[in-house]
Amino acid sequence: MMKLNKIKNVNSIYTALIFIFLYMPIAVLILFSFNSSSSTNTFEGFSLRWYRELFNDAATMEALKNTLILAVLSAIISTVIGTLAAYGINKMKNKALKNGTMSVTNIPMMNPEIVTGISMMLLFVFVGSIVNSKTILGFGTVLIAHITFNLPYVILSVMPKFKQMDRHLPEAALDLGCTPMQSFLKVELPQIMPGIISGLIMAFTLSLDDFVISYFTIGSGFETLPIRIYSMTKKRVTPDMYALSALIFVSILILLIVSNVSSSDNKEKKVLTQKQKKTVKIVLASTFGAIALLTAGLFISTSMTEVVTVNVYNWGEYISDGSEGEDGEPITDVNAEFEKYYSKILSEKYDKKIKVKVNYTTFASNEDLYAKLKGGAGGYDVIVPSDYMIERLIKEDLIQPISSRDEILTAIPDYNNLKDQFKTPFYDNGEDVYSVMYTYGVIGIVYNTDYVDEADVGGWDLLWNEKYSGKILQFNNARDAFGTAMYKLGINVNSPSVQDWENALNVLKEQKPVVQSYVMDEVYNKMESGEAWIAAYYAGDALSMIYNAEKHGVNLDFYYPTDASGNPITNVFADAMCIPADVSKEQKEHAQAYINFMLLVDEEYGSPAIANAEYIYYASPNKLVVESDDYLASLDGDEEIIYDPVIDDNITELFNTYAYRNLSNEDLATLNKNWESLKVDSSNFNVSIYVISIIIALAIIAFIVFKYVQKRYRRRLYWNNPVTSKQTFDFTSTMTKISIPPELRAGPKEDKK
Amino acid sequence: MNQKKIIELKGVAKSFDGEIILDNIDLNVYEKEFITLLGPSGCGKTTTLRIIAGFVTPDSGEVMFDGEMINDLPPYKRSVNTVFQKYALFPHLNVYENIAFALRLKKISEEEIYERVEEMLTMVNLRGFEKRDVNLLSGGQQQRVAIARALVNKPRVLLLDEPLGALDLKLRKDMQNELKNIQRKTGITFIYVTHDQEEALSMSDTVVVMANGKIQQIGTPTDIYNEPENAFVADFIGESNIIDGIMLDDYKVRFSGQEFECLDKGFEKNEPVDVVIRPEDVDVVAPEKGMLCGIVDSVTFKGVHYEIIVTINNFKWMIQSTDYVAPSQKIGLYIEPDAIHIMKKSEFSGMFGDYSSFSDEHDHLSDIIEEETETE
Q1: Torsion angle, CA of A675/A680/A681/A684, rounded to 10 degrees?
Q2: Is the N end or the C end of chain B the one with fewer CB atoms within 10 Å?
Q3: Between chains, do B82 and A187 touch, taking CB under 8 Å as contact?
Q4: Degrees, nearest 5: CA angle B216-B220-B226
């Protein structure tokens, strides 16, 4: 008994461990969704703040709406098609054909999503080029893609129900007077219903969280939730996403429980009373009904009146979006303000009610944006690439001039709000104006004033200072990490010389022992909590780090590395609004209006330029912004950090000398190769992983060989016997062979004696 | 038979994947008749039934219903209903709804549906079971629901595909009686498919013995038993000793090296024939009194009688007798003229009727295999 109890204990502990392992992350997520602060490492009190913010975040709610519409429609359509397909496959008489069809429908499930995604994008763009539409990617294409990848799952869950069904049932129905159609509806459908429902739910959840396939087949002006969350990586993922994820997890949990109950076997069904079955049915029906109604409502409400649509493609978290500010009041929703503003202008101009809709979608990197434009996924009216990418886009004719430089004030009336030095950056200083600067910034070094000696501050050397070994953070991104080394060495960051990159690599390798880790987003937590003391990062983000750290009692400061004579040596970058080359003349007018609106400082429309600057923390090139007292007040005396006069006054020269330029393919290859060798080099991890893999592989092979030999050994006695089916079992001969020892035979008798 | 023909099959043939299942079947089914299609698995009896039901279309030949050809009429337009082997009740409906299913399709008023369903439930002794889940009923109860569901439609013809196959022996006997009663009461034509010869003999007005896709014999149960047309029928219906013989003249046959008197005539002189003698028609007598003599191989007690295997002229006879004889004993056999039945030679001659390899175990095994192939 004792032993049994012990085993039971071990079992339950093991089970508990597995559950903890599986559900710990989600538990933490749900916990932090109720955190009153945005910290990711300390729970500062219970609050529903992030849930409130979530519902105030127009863009996220829009993405949620899109995701729901997409999931409901694709689930319903794929369930209908999939059920009919399963019906057809089940009716096939030719077994080989049937199996073949099943395997073919199963392949898309094994196929990596990325292959499905890319191939569908190619197909859509190809079809688009045939029908001469540059904007074929959009809601329709994602919907088709989702239906396509959902289909096999629906077939897979419906098929077994057809197989389980008594094959005489349809015949019985026909026999009793049903037409084949009636037979399907009245008899077969109820039998396969559990399969259909679990297929529907599976399709719904799959579509809900699909990222990869959506990403490739989605066009401008339509963004699903997973894509929105992913593109938040330029800034931080905000805690309202925890709230959203928690809500999604809970709803999917409920769906799963309901689907499990509804698809359970007959055996289990007996446990449920008729009443319980009814409740389950009602819950299911009302859930889907509610979702469908909601979807339909949203659909209808957006499809009336004349609508002008402006499609904007920007970085994630890169616009003031109407969420809750520090003081609890909602901040300006710039896109909503523009819709109001531009609707008024257009309505007055054409003397009829015209609605304006901003379709705001987001990307995570310049390379993503480039891939989209180059791949022919058109349909964006305004995009916000960075400096070097603009240079490239102009060269490849992927963007068009906003206007000629002489007439820029006709196109963008408030163009002069920009400070003069930001009107002709290195990437756009020709006769035409291709871009209007949105933000700019500088890379500098954030450091902890409590631990870092002021005497060590000043240059790039701080990142290499052995005194702070284990407390230094380096960029986890090739270009920026190599940038720090090259600025330190005084090498041109756009050098075509392989030797220069080698030198930078060697310096980075030297730095490696003192580096705590290579990070991007984690820099916030590490610096704000005091876990690390020194990090190179972007000025705007440094500012928000300093504010947050203050709340934890951690004191951070920031500086631009300079040379001995005090001249800054660091990267300067800019993001600017552009208009893609495929935008029509008519749409271009709307795009110009949107770009101009971003320069406005007008109380009536929530001063979009200021609202954005306050939200993004990066420096604004807009002089009205910098002169605004409200804005300066919001910076709390730290304006020096992002608006250092030394930087601002020499911006043109800094751009020309230190900005990253578009690297040639060979240089990019060199950079990537060096980066890999830095990350991989001299780490034991790498060797040990090979050793462990080999040991595991050998163990598996040894086990298989052992099993094989054992099987052979066991079979050796009978395996080669000739087949003699006609041999009759000779009972008597067997009897005689089993000789019973005399003492045994006599056994009972002896007892009697 | 002076009754009206209700179903007529004329030269019906069917093959699947090149294998001939039905080979030119001609069959008449009369009104109010209980007709049984009897045969081993693969003989085409179920296919014949499915052709009548409309689930299978014949390759050639005509299916007539009330004198009209119905070859291309879909099942749901035929006035026949089927009781399926595994009942095929609708699992998502309760007993009442299962029976009401066909009536609902006809848009009959709820009151009339209620009346007719109750009438059926009374007939099959299932009153009070209306609300039951069909999945929770016993096999016999499910069977009754299936019969009620098929009969509620008041079909002209009811098709039953081995309906009792899944029931245990006792229940089977009860259901046989009940089915026969229902048929008498309703006056509906029953076409019954089975491989159980006892079931066929005890229930039917007419038995149709089928083998290899052909009808071997049609007749009343007594005709079939007493006057089998060929070796197959003789062996399939009951036990038989089938011996090669030569018809010397009318009423005179020679087999086992002896001449016997018989009641058959109309054969050519010296025509080789198959001689059938039922085991219970042979009397065991003292060796000197016997027409034939032999040594007893084995004796098995069967309850009502002993089953005795005797070798005579290298042929193993089976004899059923209420008197015990010891193995290895020499006994004589006495056969009355009316116990001898003469058949023309057929494709089945020489395949059956010798008990040299006979054993109960074999019989039992082949039954199981048969059922397995049938349900596949």
Answers
A1: 160
A2: C
A3: no
A4: 75
- Whole-angstrom Cα distance, residue A33 to residue A27? 10
State yes or no: pLDDT of B126 exceeds 50.
yes
Segments making up each domain of chain B, as ranges: 5-226, 246-375
| Residue B96 contacts residue B130 (beta carbons within 8 Å) | yes
Residue numbers in B near A174 (CB within 8 A): 54-55, 74-76
Q: What is the mean pLDDT of residues B133-143?
A: 88
Task: Give the residue among A206, A171, A208 at the shortest CA–CA distance from A188.
Answer: A171
Is residue A508 in some structural domain? Answer: no
Mean pLDDT, 10 residues at a time, chain A of 753 residues: 72 88 87 78 78 77 85 92 91 87 86 87 83 73 91 92 88 90 90 89 88 83 81 68 84 77 52 61 72 63 67 86 71 87 87 84 84 78 92 90 90 91 89 93 91 88 90 89 90 88 90 88 85 90 86 88 84 92 88 92 87 88 88 82 84 87 86 83 65 92 92 80 51 41 43 38
- CATH number, position A363: 3.40.190.10
Pairing of strands B241-249, B5-16: unpaired
A to B CB pairs, distance under 8 Å: 60
Test the A interface: residue of B47, B51, B76 with most A CBs within 10 Å: B76
Which CATH number fits the domain that encloses residue A289? Answer: 1.10.3720.10
Distance from the B92 Cα atom to the nearest Cα atom in chain A, whole angstroms: 7
For residues A491, A493, A497, A500, the Cα torsion angle rounded to the nearest 10 degrees is 40
| Backbone torsions φ then ψ of B89, nearest 5 degrees | -75, 155
- B residues 126-165 lying closer than 8 A (beta carbon) to A: 135-136, 149-150, 153
In-domain check, residue A639: yes
Distance of CA B150 to the CA centre of its chain: 22
Neighbours of A287 (CB within 10 A): 15
User: Which chain B residue has its CA at the smallest distance from A274's CA?
Assistant: B133
Q: What is the pLDDT of residue A236?
A: 64
In a domain, A590, yes or no: yes
Whether residue A179 and residue B149 make contact (CB cut-off 8 A), yes or no, is no
- Which of B55, B80, B135 lies nearest to residue A171, judging by beta carbons? B55
Shortest Cα distance, chain A CAs vs residue B269, angstroms: 42
Among B residues 61-120, those touching chain A with beta carbons less than 8 Å apart: 74-76, 80-82, 84-86, 88-92, 101-102, 105-106
Nearest-CA distance B312 → chain A (Å): 25
Which residues on A lie below 8 Å from B90 (Cβ)?
169, 172-173, 187, 190
Residue A38 resides in a domain:
no
| The CATH number fitting domain B5-226, selected from 3.40.50.300, 2.60.120.230, 2.40.160.10, 3.30.190.30 | 3.40.50.300
Q: Do both A271 and A387 map to the same domain?
A: no
Question: CB under 8 Å to A421, separation ≥6 — which residues?
Answer: A648, A649, A651, A652
Chain B residues close to A187, C-beta within 8 Å: 90
Residues of chain A neighbouring B74 (CB-CB closer than 8 A): 174, 179
Range of the domain at A428: 307-433+573-659
3-state secondary structure of A502: helix
Q: Are residues A260 and A353 in the same domain?
A: no
Domain B246-375 bears CATH identifier 3.50.50.60: no
Contact A187 B106 (CB under 8 A): no
Evaluate whether B280 touches B316 at the Cβ level (below 8 Å): no
CB contact under 8 A, B90 and A169: yes
Nearest CA in chain A to B54: A175
DSSP string for A64-120: HHHHHHHHHHHHHHHHHHHHHHHHHHHH---HHHHHHHHHHHHHHHHS-HHHHHHHH
What would the two tokens of residue B169 be? Answer: 């022996």
The pLDDT of residue B354 is 66
